[in-house]
Amino acid sequence: MINEFINGARSMIDIFNDSKANDDRERVRKAAHKAIPSFRYFKIKHTAELLEEIETFSMKKDKAGNWSSLVKQAVTETEHVIARAEKSKTTIDKQDKIS
Fold first, then answer.
1. Which of 25, 29, 49, 94 has its CA 20 to 30 A from that of 35?
2. Are 53 and 67 in contact (CB under 8 A)?
């Protein structure tokens, strides 16, 4: 389960980075929408709320810088979440070997 979350989060980051450069808001919106349930499942509320905000902003046609900065913030937060998830996974794996 955690491996699937980590892989999905990495995929979302890749999509965000590629799409942000091209201002492909629809692709970002779809990736955010798909990722929100996983972040909620693991109770990563702040990032889930940020992804919802990106989903909403992605549907707007204005060229305000808010969208780009939100996407950048989500990438940074998700990278931190992935690092914590990998650390937790390593701890769990070590505990399983001891048992």
1. 94
2. no
